[in-house]
């Protein structure tokens, strides 16, 4: 498979001069959420509600307020199909409870995108392009990928996309959503697969959620760690 550097992609280059003139926030964060065919309607609802709850939690708002600019910008991407990752909520600035509630409402109201297989590498490429084209500037640019399985059908392998994103100054953290005792086809816990193939950059880390009912807790802890 032909491997091109992320920075050589036309969309990334076109966005760079615009970003240099944009308002500044402490962190640019892309939440890349698994919407593949393995997630039924009830699980998807739990996932959306857990994300909204985490984004509005007092501990997350406190972490944002404790940063020098007191603001972050968040976008939400759904991924699954090869080359099909989709931005369902574009970047919104979060600086207080009201703006956090507005973001949470946008997350809950966004139509579900049409996704299929687990294409994590393509999700990372999409998230990296989104960060490079963001209407805000930040010293910290982060992709926060959550999923319930390994990379299966990416046009570019997850580790390749990860390496290019890290080279562009982006950190990638991961949330592994798996039932207790579940292992991947490689015979290892999903968190270990994500640790090896997905995360990257200084201080990158993986957290685990036992199931989608545990997403709010896991994502809340993850957001506080990423922001603070």
Automatic annotation (TrEMBL):
<feature type="domain" description="VWFA">
    <location>
        <begin position="28"/>
        <end position="227"/>
    </location>
</feature>
<dbReference type="InterPro" id="IPR036465">
    <property type="entry name" value="vWFA_dom_sf"/>
</dbReference>
<keyword id="KW-0732">Signal</keyword>
<protein>
    <submittedName>
        <fullName>DUF1194 domain-containing protein</fullName>
    </submittedName>
</protein>
<feature type="signal peptide">
    <location>
        <begin position="1"/>
        <end position="22"/>
    </location>
</feature>
<dbReference type="InterPro" id="IPR010607">
    <property type="entry name" value="DUF1194"/>
</dbReference>
<dbReference type="Pfam" id="PF06707">
    <property type="entry name" value="DUF1194"/>
</dbReference>
<dbReference type="InterPro" id="IPR002035">
    <property type="entry name" value="VWF_A"/>
</dbReference>
């Amino acid at each position: 498979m032909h491997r091109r550097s992320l920075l050589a992609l036309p969309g990334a280059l076109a966005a760079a001069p615009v970003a240099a003139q944009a308002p500044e926030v402490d962190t640019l964060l892309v939440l890349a959420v698994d919407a593949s065919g393995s997630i039924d309607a009830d699980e998807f609802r739990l996932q959306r509600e857990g994300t909204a709850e985490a984004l509005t939690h007092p501990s997350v708002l406190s972490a944002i307020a404790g940063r020098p600019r007191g603001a972050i910008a968040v976008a939400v991407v759904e991924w699954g199909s090869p080359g099909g990752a989709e931005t369902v909520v574009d970047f919104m600035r979060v600086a207080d409870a009201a703006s956090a509630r507005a973001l949470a409402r946008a997350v809950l109201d966004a139509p579900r995108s049409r996704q299929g297989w687990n294409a994590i590498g393509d999700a990372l490429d999409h998230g990296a392009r989104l960060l490079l084209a963001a209407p805000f500037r930040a010293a910290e640019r982060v992709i926060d990928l959550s999923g319930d399985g390994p990379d299966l059908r990416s046009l570019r392998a997850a580790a390749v996309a990860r390496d290019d994103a890290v080279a562009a100054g982006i950190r990638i953290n991961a949330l592994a959503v798996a039932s207790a005792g579940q292992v991947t086809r490689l015979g290892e816990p999903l968190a270990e697969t994500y640790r090896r193939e997905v995360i990257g950059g200084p201080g990158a880390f993986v957290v685990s959620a036992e199931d989608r009912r545990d997403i709010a807790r896991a994502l809340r802890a993850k957001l506080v760690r990423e922001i603070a």
